[in-house]
Amino acid sequence: MFSTLGFNQEDVTNSHSFFRLVRQKKYHEISDSLYQSVVNQLESKDRVTISRVVTLIESLNLEHRRRADKIFEILFKRYKEKNLNHSLDQDLPTFRIGICGAPGSGKSSLIEKIGMSLINEGMKVAVLAIDPSSAKTGGSILGDKTRMEYLSREVNAFVRPSPTKGYLGGVSLNTNEIVTLCEHVGFDAVLIETVGVGQSEIEIDTVSDFVVYVVPPASGDELQASKKGVMEIADCVVINKFDSEYEKSCRVVKHQILGGLHLSRPKVDGWRVPVELVSAHREYNIDSIWRNAMRFKENHKDIITQKRGEQLLHGLWAYMGDMLLKRLKSESGHIYADIIAQNEKRLIKQEITPNAAASNIMSHIFKD
Amino acid sequence: MFSTLGFNQEDVTNSHSFFRLVRQKKYHEISDSLYQSVVNQLESKDRVTISRVVTLIESLNLEHRRRADKIFEILFKRYKEKNLNHSLDQDLPTFRIGICGAPGSGKSSLIEKIGMSLINEGMKVAVLAIDPSSAKTGGSILGDKTRMEYLSREVNAFVRPSPTKGYLGGVSLNTNEIVTLCEHVGFDAVLIETVGVGQSEIEIDTVSDFVVYVVPPASGDELQASKKGVMEIADCVVINKFDSEYEKSCRVVKHQILGGLHLSRPKVDGWRVPVELVSAHREYNIDSIWRNAMRFKENHKDIITQKRGEQLLHGLWAYMGDMLLKRLKSESGHIYADIIAQNEKRLIKQEITPNAAASNIMSHIFKD
Question: InterPro entries from the entry (chains A, B) (predicted)?
Answer without folding.
Answer: GTPase_ArgK, P-loop_NTPase
